[in-house]
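Model it.
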Amino acid sequence: MAITVTNQKPAVLDALHTISCTGDYDPMPAIQQTLVDPLLQPLNPNAPASITDAQGADLTGHISDLFLSCLGDTLNVASEQTVKAVLGQTLINFDQGTRLPVAELFAVQAAQQNKMPAPSPRVLYTAQADVLPAAKALLAGSGEASAFFASVAYTFHPDTLGFWFQSSAAFDGFKTWLSQQTQTMASALPPTTTKLLNDFTALSLKGLTESLLVRKDDSDANDEHSFARVLVHMLMNYVEQQRARASQQNTAMDAGVLPFTIGELFCPRSLILVNVEAHARATPAKITGEWNLINQSLASPVKVVSNTSLSKLTSLPRAAARAAALGASQQPGQPGSRSAQVAFRKQPPSKLDLFNDITCVLRRMGKVAKSHNIFRTTAATFLKANRRNPDDFNKPGRIASVQYMPDLHIYIDTSGSISEENYQEAVMMLIRIAKKLNVNLYFNSFSHFLSQEVMLRTENKSTAQIWKEFRRIPKVSGGTEYTQIWQYINASRTRQRRLSLMVTDFDWLPPSKRQDHPKNLYYAPCSAKDWSSMVDLAKRYADSMKHIDPSIRQRLLGMVV
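Modeled.
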């Protein structure tokens, strides 16, 4: 998108803000000051800066609205493109072509500042190659805090607000300062806030991180002097003082902000406190495990925030992991990067096209130890006597072997946009493919609910018999929601090893925040629908999934060539 910027001084956005903890909670002035005002600072003070789009429409007064439209529950592709084009023209350090959503713009800015390429199927960030060296450099004073932030953000993409401390001693220094500050305002604080702040000062940051839940949702804990507001306000004030001291004394800071996503920066539901020294001394596996646990906890649909005691973000998964470890002790193909090049089919795929695509994926996934997808082969060998001529050593025998391909798990869209004819066509197509592969199927229907999992036995049965069994299975109806399927697959290692195929019309937009997309989940179009409309919806879905899975187009079986 072409954006024209006039008389604007190229900017660097600063995530530091100090939203007051008194009065009504209103983050809009902080959003204006942090995100919008720097983009409109004039180069020549005698004339205002202006931003116009390709049609000549003035966007200058609508920048804050454009930012907010990028922070909804679903990704707004048009707003994302517009805001990225604006940022590309107004910021000193920003990659306009990034696949990451606008919500992660501070990570993109920090990465560009440190000349770090954008993550992609060919550019992978890891704890060993990126986070660990960045932590060591920051601890030694030879690296920038922005490089550490960008390495963590590009490796793990947590949807939270973080604050880094150079060591556990630096965190203790903050706690001492916090106690002094809260004593001066003790008379104004509610008893619950005072208790939670006292509990906070008892925390130790000797490990890699300490994580807290502070809100159930954006409307929670916004009262005057609530714990969530006071703690974030104090953390921001402390970082601001640390910055001023470091500037005056020409010394390094020992604390800073980690603005992983914009939404969490201004109204955080969780806080991650990060020990840089512990990261610099930890193993890559330990760092990866810690941040994966944080992301797992953030994605959990059940979050309990207490008004009387500190709610730790990772307490439930850590307890579950300890229980699993105790129980165990008591008992004796990544896709390529051609997504931008693949083209959509001009005609609906035939059953043979879908069959070939599915078998190609199965072949690429390789063999598994056990499944319902049995593949029997025979081969000639001189290690076994010939059955007809056992005394003739010049004639090879035959040896039979049994191998297992991954199981096939089908998720059929039965939302309101799918008619009974669409459903029947999709089921019949899958029955024919299953019979050709000679395998059983795992099956769920889904809308905004997910039906119970059923295994359908298709071997040695006629198409009519299998269809009769399908018709007996209750199917759900309603809206459309894909993320429940992602979470359902990711929750089970057994389901992760299956080839999962979602049959849908693609009439859904993904969330604006990053989520883990299952590695072996693919998509297929439902039948008996207008193909041009299906392609348009699939293109929209693929474009809006770039921040979650850049290679998503290669997962659309039967859609692309």
